[in-house]
Write a structure and sequence with these properties.
The structure is a single chain. The chain is built from one helix and four strands. With about 70 residues, it is mainly beta.
Length: about 70
């Protein structure tokens, strides 16, 4: 996940403000980050969606057993 700052849409390159990579062990793509409308414990937070793909066969399904499905940082 990367947070970028766009000050001026007329040409200045976006600036990376923060980044956190929790892939792997989570290979599914992260998208649709949205700020929560209210604070939580006095902090502004956002939520995001991770997609989970599906195993294509029994061997792949067995290899995925016990693997975490999504990341959460507190």
């Amino acid at each position: 996940m990367t947070e970028i700052e766009i000050v001026d849409e007329s040409g200045e390159e976006p600036k990376t403000v923060a980044a956190y990579n929790y892939h792997p062990p989570f290979p599914e793509p992260t998208h649709t980050v949205m700020p929560m409308p209210v604070e939580s414990a006095g902090r502004r937070i956002a939520i995001s969606v991770d997609e989970e793909d599906h195993a294509q066969n029994t061997n792949e399904e067995q290899a995925r057993r016990g693997r975490p499905h999504a990341g959460m940082d507190g």
